[in-house]
Amino acid sequence: NIKGGIFKLSGIVITKPIFIKGESYPVLDANNSKTDLITIQSDSVVLDGIKLINVQKSYTSDNAAIKIVEAKGVEIRNIKTENCFFGLYLKEASYSVIKDNIIIGNKQNETSSGNGIHLWKSNHITISNNTIFHHRDGIYFEFVKNSKIYSNISKRNLRYGLHFMFSDSCTYKYNLFWKNGAGVAVMYSKSVLMNKNIFKENWGSASYGLLLKDIKDSRIDHNKFINNTIGILAEGSNRVIIEYNNFERNGWGMKMLGNCVDNIVKNNNFISNSFDLSTNSMESYNIYESNYWSNYKGYDLNKDGIGDVPYYPVSLFSVIVQTSSPAMILMHSLFINVLEISEKIFPSLIPKKVIDLKPRMSKVND
């Protein structure tokens, strides 16, 4: 056990199994040293109840409060980090747990801030119940397999709350991504499950709740996208099921670019978004079915809960804004309202293949 107090040190290397428990949160102060504070190179190590501070940034190495290298069976819990370049860094680690930690960066700029929890070439890692803020990315995965991220709060990070790169067969659920530069980016990955997360107030000129970039065979369900610039931005993504999500009060509920194929958007609620859906193509190779659209003005004569008139979720004004963003100043103007009505009567400019043939008359309750 380590008793309470402040200890100025760095460069600690753990090379054998050990359980280190802090009493009253002893503070390990790296004193702005340009090296890792603790490096774990052994299996079966547990760190519990310690505060680590002041690991200096470096442009040549990823200095971290705790770095785990080629180890398995490691558990990091009840740790606090403050003003550290990287918080927790896992390199070729496996079968380890990161839980119940508070990780606070310095939030200066992207070049001088590392990631809160950073994984490289690791597998079977569980990250749960952590709070991460003021880092570059809250949580970063690169070449990670079969890992889980759940019940974390990732907020006010400079770039992404969560960032996936080349990481397959992973799951993230029950997380809150709030007021980050952008919420989550899932890139060049497959078989990712995104379930019961909240993407909220990720707002800015180039921000979104969730970016899908060249992903495939994945599932997004039971999430809430609230007050983001864009709820979901999908580019080059295929065979993704997007179901039972709420898109509420976003600038764009969803942007599905023309190079997305064989995606299913079904049983979602699109409520009070400035634009429910936008695309950059007149063609569509995706399915939109049985969604609730608060802007839908159709009728239901047989009272089966399904609108009798198909719904075209891409509005004329969203097409105009897609080609000329300064046109946004005309939003809610009488001129645009007249154009929208004309387009519904004689559609010619909106993509006719982007259509929900079975729009719901009331919200989806799963």
Question: Which key phrases capture this entry?
Answer:
twelve-stranded parallel β-sheet, 366 residues, mainly beta, 2 helices, 13-stranded parallel β-sheet
What does this 3D model show about the protein?
The chain is mainly β. The mean pLDDT is 91. Helix content is 5%, strand content 43%. The longest helix is centred in the last third of the chain and has 12 residues, at 334-345. The strands form three sheets. Strands 1-4-7-10-13-16-19-22-25-28-31-34-37 form a 13-stranded parallel beta sheet, with no helix packed on it. A twelve-stranded parallel beta sheet has the order 2-5-8-11-14-17-20-23-26-29-32-35, with helices on one face.
Radius of gyration: 23 Å
Report how far the terminal alpha carbons are from each other. Answer: 49 Å
Question: What does the overall shape look like?
Answer: elongated
Q: What is the number of strand segments?
A: 37
Fraction of helical residues: under 10%
- Given the helix and strand composition, which structural class is it? mainly beta
Q: Mean of residue pLDDT?
A: 91
Please list the strands of the largest sheet in the order they lie side by side.
Answer: 1-4-7-10-13-16-19-22-25-28-31-34-37
Count of DSSP-assigned helices? 2
Strand content: 35-45%
Largest sheet descriptor? 13 strands, parallel
Low-confidence stretches: none
